[in-house]
Specification:
transcription regulation; 3 domains; 12 helices; alpha/beta; Rossmann fold; 434 Repressor (Amino-terminal Domain); elongated; transcription
């Protein structure tokens, strides 16, 4: 469906349709009404790429799935900062406001975005990627642990990050190390568990089934996981939670049970979100530069939004650097 199809349907010139779409003045209300009616009946969606090429302003959709995540503030601030620097327009959409994530994506498509930044778990959702491809809208996968070669992505090495933290705990002298998994629908959760298990195996350390418990990357799930682990007859001397929210919950449960951190229990997290440095003792964690990654994702998305949907240029895959941040929540195990 093109602008010219709308013009023929409405019985007006293509220039008139263009002026209505771009909300120019000096269009009669009668002509405006005819054009808007034809747009609705035909299901016409203005070409976002053409608009971005013409005006220099790209429209980029940004989705988020967990409004309570400690990462959200840094994610949005990084996105806003870059949008202001490069002059692109962001359309922010929470998936929780829709019956399904696909409906949130459809809303952005209907709004005319040229590209969409997809956080976990949407970045790994084949249905979402297919929906965007059918609409000619470019996806940018954010923080996926298994980037597709066909999709531009900004990510970290989750496997190495988990391995880095596990090596730190082993170097302190810990043998009985437990893991709180993340949301099983996130590829990051799987890769962090793989990194943990591989490093434990390399050190010749066993991981009992009871030492790996389910989590969902939420504080509440961390409370449940901590109660399971700290209720074991032989409880671990260290707990590695797959993100800081769950690690903070483990710390709260330990305090409630009278378990001293870190002298009786070491606790480690992942992401280095604000909660890591606001609880006591402060969390040892893996720093993930969320704000800078979000800024990079928006910049890449804006570039894709200004190009044709059939552009066959190779997709870019940006890998951000991780850092082990050692704070007060980890120490050698009690002898």
């Amino acid at each position: 469906m093109t602008l010219h199809d709308v013009a023929r349907h409405a019985g007006v010139s293509s220039m008139t349709v263009s002026r209505v779409i771009n909300d120019y003045a000096f269009i009669s209300e009668a002509a405006r009404a005819k054009v808007l009616k034809s747009i609705e009946e035909l299901g016409y969606r203005p070409n976002a790429v053409a608009r971005a090429t013409r005006t220099g302003v790209a429209q980029v959709g940004v989705l988020y799935s967990n409004p309570n995540s400690s990462n959200l503030s840094a994610f949005l601030m990084g996105a806003f900062r870059k949008a202001g620097e490069i002059g692109c327009q962001l359309l922010i959409e929470p998936t929780a406001a829709h019956p399904t994530p696909a409906r949130a994506v459809a809303k952005l498509i209907e709004a005319g975005v040229g590209a969409v930044v997809l956080p976990p778990p949407l970045c790994d959702n084949a249905k979402i990627l297919k929906l965007l491809a059918a609409a000619g809208v470019a996806p940018v996968s954010f923080a996926t642990a298994r980037p597709s070669p066909d999709v531009t992505s900004v990510a970290i090495d989750d496997f190495e990050g988990a391995a880095m933290m596990t090596r730190h705990l082993i170097a302190l002298g810990h043998v009985d190390i437990a893991l709180v998994r993340g949301d099983p629908s996130h590829s990051t959760s799987t890769r962090r568990e793989e990194g943990f298990r591989a490093t434990m195996a390399q050190a010749g350390l066993a991981v009992p089934d009871a030492y790996v418990v389910e989590g969902a990357f939420t504080y509440r799930s961390g409370l449940t996981a901590a109660s399971q682990l700290l209720g074991l007859r032989r409880r671990p001397s260290a707990i590695f939670a797959s993100n800081d929210d769950m690690a903070a919950a483990v710390s709260a449960v330990a305090h409630g049970m009278g378990i001293a951190v870190p002298t009786e229990l070491s606790i480690a997290g992942f992401d280095d979100t604000p909660v890591a440095s606001t609880i006591w003792p402060q969390l040892t964690t893996i720093h993930q530069p969320i704000a800078d990654m979000a800024a990079t994702a928006v910049e890449l998305a804006a570039g894709l939004a200004r190009r044709d949907a059939d552009d066959d240029q190779p997709r870019r895959h940006v890998l951000a650097e991780l850092t082990l941040v050692v704070r007060q929540s980890t120490a050698p195990p009690a002898s």
